[in-house]
Design goal:
Blueprint lengths: L1 E5 L9 E4 L9 E10 L2 H8 L10 E2 L4 E8 L11 E4 L14 E5 L4 E2 L6 H21 L7 E5 L4 H12 L3 E6 L4 H7 L3 E4 L5 H8 L4 E6 L6 H7 E9 L11 H6 L3 E4 L7 H16 L8 E5 L3 H9 L6 E5 L8 E2 L2
Parallel strand pairs: 9-10, 9-12, 10-11, 12-13, 13-14, 15-16
Antiparallel strand pairs: 1-2, 1-4, 3-5, 3-7, 3-16, 5-6, 6-8, 15-17
Helix pairs in contact: 2-3, 2-8
Amino acid sequence: MRAAYVEELGPPDLIRVGEVPPPRPGPDDVLVDVEVTAVNHVDTFVRSGAWRTPVPFPFVIGRDVVGTVTRAGPGAPGFAAGDRVWCSSLGHAGRQGAAAERVAVPADRLYRLPEGVDAVDAVALSHPASTAYLALFTHGRMRAGETVVVLGGAGNVGGAAVVMAAQAGARVVAVASAEDADHCRGLGAHHVVDYRDPEAPRSIRAYAPRGVDLHVDTSGTNDLETAVDLLAPRGRAVVLAGLRTRPVLPAGALYLQDQSVRGFAISNARPDELADAAAHINTLLADGTLRPRTTEVLPLGEAAEAHRRLEAGAVDGKLVLRVAKGRPVGGTAA
């Protein structure tokens, strides 16, 4: 079968598109014919070796998939041929990736796609929205009525976090560029702060004088000194990006106010945690509340170029690779 794969870890130029052996599903797996897969930063980390995880060669790249069930094993009774489905956790911990014509997905990592939801929209949101859910609810323990600050509020993960937090009844402060202020308000942000403004922390304090309950940094800046200073008593800061950052942690201020800093990576999420996220995402997808801002769809043959562009910071929105043959290549504008 045709796939985008590597035979060793390293730069994007090592990505090949060609024939690899088809998947050999186990009894608890579901065989899925792939329509589209997304391109994520974590995909580049795994491919380059920056994130060490078991990688069987030839290794099919990619994490997220939307497609159609072709066969379900006896241990996957909830799925049948013809079901449209999605997954956000292939390509890690020894699992082959998503950028192939057919993949084998463990049944506990696979979810039905709601009726009428576009495959490109779903795959573009699967990883960012799952990450946002885990940041807010699984690790951030967010509750209705709390004040939540989202750094990178106009980005893929940040935008999903703004939507979810606002929908769950939080008072949301989005930190983004001034040009994205209206977009963030449209997502549900109650207050928007320009990240370039040197008075940004003061603006946040003015809006939340008793402090913020949850500080989520999707930008990877990880300025923990400022984050902890903004927290309310028992406030939580969640770190989820910025692989190579080495911030200063003001431990004294942190423990004297019963505050906490929690780091997580979606790759480490348990299947039950991902399933909770998927159920929430499906609700927002089905009612149209959650949509990607911008997508660009490329053919599978441009997988290496997609990785190069993402690593160079030359991507606006979300890159998606079209795997299924005979379908038009396109995208959605902001």
